[in-house]
Structure formats: C-alpha cells, structure tokens
TrEMBL record:
Gene3D superfamilies: NAD(P)-binding Rossmann-like Domain. This is NAD dependent epimerase/dehydratase. Pfam families: PRISE. It comes from the Bacteria. InterPro entries: NAD(P)-bd_dom_sf, PRISE-like_Rossmann-fold. PANTHER family: 3-OXO-DELTA(4,5)-STEROID 5-BETA-REDUCTASE. It comes from Pedobacter quisquiliarum. Residues 65-355 form the PRISE-like Rossmann-fold domain. Signal peptide: none annotated.
Length: 355
C-alpha cells in the first residue's frame, strides 16, 4: 500500500508545513480540520469535528490512512477541561480509524509543557524541570492534557498494533493565520506596530529569558522529524524533542529582529511588560494599518497570540532542549533560528500579512 497521510490540524502552523512536506515527498495527503486548509496544492481537505464521532465517520469513510499525524488541540478554561476534550478528540479519531485497520503509524505533536507543566501551572515553582529538558524526564505530578493525549495513543496502539511517535517542539516558528500559539507572527505584528507608531520594540518578558539560553523549533524542521520518525524503524514507539539545533540568548536575537524591521530595540529594564497588555488597544490601529498598507488580514486577533508569547517569554528560568536522542538515531536536520524568523517575516510581507 502506498503512503496515505492524514494530517489532523492541517490549517495550523505545524499541520500546514507538514502537509506541504508530505505532498512534496509524493504522499497522498488528507488534511482534517473544522475549517480545512484549501490553499495547499495537492492537499485533500477533510472537514470534520473531532468531538463528533458521526462527523468523523462520515468524513473519513473514503480515507484509508496509513500514517496519522495529530497536530491540533483545543484550549479550554481549566486543565480538567483541557484533559477531557483533548483526550476525547484523540480517542474519537483513533476509534473511527480503527475500523479500517489501515493505520501503520500515529505521530502526536505536544510540546515543552510536557516538562514545564500545563497553562494552569506553567513554569511555576515546584514544577520546574532540570534544564536542558530530556525525553527521559518523568512526568510531573500534576494533571496535564499532553499526558492524557499520549495515553490515548498508547492505548490505541496496543489495541490496533500500529507504531507511534511523540514529538515535543519548543516554540514553533512558522506561517499560519488564526493560530493560538504563534510567536513568530505575533512579534512581526508587534514590530510592525512599533514601526508605524514610533514606539520602541520593548522586550516583554523576564530577566531569566532575556539573559538565559533558549531555542525554538522551525515548523519545517518539525515536519522533517515527523516524516523521519514515521519512516524510520529505529524511531518507532519513542518520544523525541525537536528544535532547530542551535541556541541563542534573547538579548542577542531581540536586536536582530529589531534590525529587520528597522525599529529601536529596548531590552529588559527590570520589569515584565506583557504583550497582551501592550497590544490590547491596538486592534483599531491594526485595521487602519491594514487599510493603509493594503494588508489582507485586518483582524489583529487572527495574527497575534500575545497571551502565548507572554507565557514563553515570561518564564522564570532559561529553557533549552536536549536533542541527543534523535541525533544518535540519525536525524540531523538543522536550521538557523535567525533565518527561521527572517524567512517568516519575508513570507508575511510577501503575502501582505504585515506591511
């Protein structure tokens, strides 16, 4: 049987980049979402609600996927609700797919909240891991919807006999509109507003993040690891961290990002200045900028996810990721983080998402 991929969450940063990679490699690729992405040439869109089994059964009736890539999640008000709904989405999907017995491999994308804790207790005292984070670190003794998602994959694999892989990126940098965790575009929009208004490009986060070492994950590097793990026998039934492969300090990168936009950088000044508050009154301004510069998206909320950027940049510790595990098994892809941001900014500008 030829490789038939089902990318769940194909309209997001991770899913869209993965779909493009799979199609380029000759895979038959289906993209499942509530509002499917129709911009990717060669992608077969599938519209379905992961919380509705009947919707899934109908939408997937003609799809015999060999490889399933789960790249989506749903944010709720509490971690109890996050666990309930996100585990149910995975369970429903794998239960429906089980009927055809076509699945060979399931990949689940989670993230560093596996080590840092969920949103309710994110990187707070008592939950802080040893840095750099490594895949063998035990689960935290607190509830976490990532663990619940993993357990659904493990249970379905035991039932149906497919292999699995878990992928834990740091902050994912890539193009997407309407995404809830989108630091790259958020910073591009913030810098564009600073340029328009003459405001300084002010660091919004903590001293630990400003001064400490960090890393991020280009969406295209994540796509490469997903494909590698799905097709490499030695990678079966394992969890992997995934980052670009370099490290940096925000005290350096912040000036590099400011230089690209030709704005004045302002570093850590002793206080945290959350972007959510900084950009709270910029919605009308962005609409005016969209009209002035001929931008195709005038809704600031569909481009910027300041709340999530604040979580990442406001951490009280430096956070780095150990990549030894997949490197030792032969995964050697690398990406310069400065290039990740610059290439994203160029894409956003060429597509008229930023001025």
């Amino acid at each position: 049987m030829s490789n038939v991929a089902l990318v769940v969450g194909a309209s997001g940063i991770t899913g869209s980049n993965l779909a493009e990679k799979l199609i380029a490699e000759g895979w038959v690729t289906y993209g499942l979402a509530r509002n499917p992405n129709t911009d990717i040439a060669g992608l077969h869109p599938v519209q379905a609600d992961l919380l509705d089994v009947n919707s899934l059964e109908k939408a997937l009736s003609g799809v015999s996927a060999t490889h399933v890539f789960i790249t989506t999640w749903m944010r709720k008000d509490t971690e109890v609700e996050n666990i309930k709904f996100n585990s149910l989405m995975v369970r429903n999907l794998l239960t429906v797919l089980s009927q055809k017995q076509s699945v060979k491999h399931v990949a689940l994308v989670t993230g560093l909240k596996h080590y840092l804790g969920p949103f309710d207790a994110y990187a707070k005292s008592g939950t802080l891991p040893e840095i750099p984070v490594r895949e063998e670190h035990p689960r935290l003794e607190i509830e976490n919807f990532y663990y619940a998602q993993e357990d659904e994959v493990y249970a379905a694999a035991a039932r149906d006999g497919f292999t699995w892989s878990i992928h834990r990126p740091h902050t994912v940098i890539g193009r997407a509109v309407g995404n809830m965790m989108n630091m790259g575009t958020t910073l591009a929009v913030y810098a564009s507003i600073c340029k328009e208004t003459g405001r300084p490009f002010r660091w919004p986060g903590s001293a630990a993040q400003w001064n400490g070492l960090s890393d991020v994950t280009d969406a295209r590097i994540l796509a490469e690891q997903l494909l590698w793990a799905a097709t490499t026998k030695a990678a079966a039934n394992q969890a992997f961290n995934i980052t670009n492969g370099d490290v940096f300090r925000w005290s350096w990168l912040w000036k590099e990002l400011a230089a690209w936009f030709d704005v004045v950088p302002a570093g850590f000044d002793g206080d945290i200045h959350p972007l959510e508050a900084e950009m709270a009154r910029d919605h009308v301004l962005w609409k005016e900028m969209a009209e002035k510069h001929g931008l195709i998206e005038s809704d600031l909320a569909r481009l910027a996810s300041a709340w999530h950027t604040d979580l990442d940049l406001g951490r009280p510790i430096e956070v780095m990721t150990d990549m030894s595990k997949s490197r030792k098994l032969g995964f050697t892809a690398y990406k310069s983080t400065r290039d990740s941001f610059y290439e994203l900014f160029e894409t956003l500008r060429s597509e008229r998402l930023i001025p």
